[in-house]
Amino acid sequence: MNRRWTPFFCALTLAAAFSLVHSFALVEAQSTQQQPAQPAVPDAPKPQAPPPMSDVKNQVTPGSGTQATPPPPANSPSSSSGDEPQPTPSTRPPATTGPDEFQGAPPETPDSGAGVDAFKTQFVVTTNAVEVPVTVKDSKGQPVAGLTFRDFRVFENNQRQRITFFTVDAFPLSVAYVIDQSVTADVMAQVNTSLGAIQGSLAPYDDVAVFTYNNGAKELTGFTGAQSHRLEAVLALSKATGREMSVPVTSGPLAGCPITANGDCIDPNIQPGRSAGGPFLSLPKEIHTLNDAILRAATEVAKRPQGRRRVIYVISDGKEAGSKATTKEVIKYLQTNKIAVYATLVGDSARWGTGYLSRFHLPFEMNNNVLIKYAAETGGQLDAERSSNGIEKSYQRLADEARNQYTIVYNSHQPFIDGKYRSIEVRVDRPNVEVTAKRGYFPTAQDVH
Questions:
Q1: Which of 9, 82, 376, 430 places its Cα 20 to 30 Å from the Cα of 26?
Q2: According to the model, what pLDDT value does residue 86 have?
Q3: Are 311 and 173 in contact (CB under 8 A)?
């Protein structure tokens, strides 16, 4: 190329380059004008040191938690941030001045995984329903019929109770017959003759168990149908000979000990004065385990279902001696399990005069008639009969009284189950009537409905 054209081309190249750079600058300026301006990012706040604990010593009370926090100042960041309205001082909750007693018991906490299924509303009604069978008789000893609930007044621990259930319908019976085989032979013969009338006094829907006792209780059969052949056979097997009453010999040649050793009698029961010596002969004690027999029968009767009248029927003279259980303990068990004791008194307890004196207990002597206590405390009845015909009629009479009673139910005002004895008194708004009902009870869980 000619050297004279070289400066020309250099100038043209520089002009083109300058024009290209200028074009890029114009494009970048136009794009910058179209985009909005970005706000400036403020600096992060500086970390602040926590307030000293001495500032909160007047804000925390042991057992009460923190006190009400005063509202923040108007120029604080928390008051200016957001658009939510702040509550006025009149709508703030009052400051806590003591422990929170509103919650009371802690809420129910379901197991892990139960979730919403455990969130249920349950209505549980716990009442202590007390059932009181009542027998009402007139001055001639005849049952009084036609009474309504308005004629009755029920008191528990001297406090009037509201009757919640009342009926005059007959109840099926669950009867445990307890036959005394420790009576004398002549009395036992009368009892043996009358046993065949037991089935005739019962209904087909009743059930019966049979127990006997002499020196210890014995179960002959568990509960079976009242009209079954099994009961008929068991009643035949329950007959016994009784005891032969002999005149005790305390002096003379027949009063000596048949076998002696070193001048003493081998049998300590007939040793004169026993080990202490002396001129008096200690006669052998009689054994009548009536308490043990009633308790043995009660443990079976208590298993009978609800809706049946639980009865223990005793055929005895009422003598008690040698039982392991006390009368008080057995009565408590009967009152706890709603069991009534009915009895036909035979022997000495059925005789005029002697039967009345047998109610009293002489010191250092056996109880001549404890059945009076059993019947009075459990709401049962007693009949005293001296003949076989009278004993047979008493079976039917007492069974009808146990079945056809006024049944009263009320809800006790006492705490649910406290294990304490509660007295019961039933009054009837009729003149010259005799009211028979249990005198009290011990609450149990089976009363809950």
A1: 9
A2: 52
A3: yes
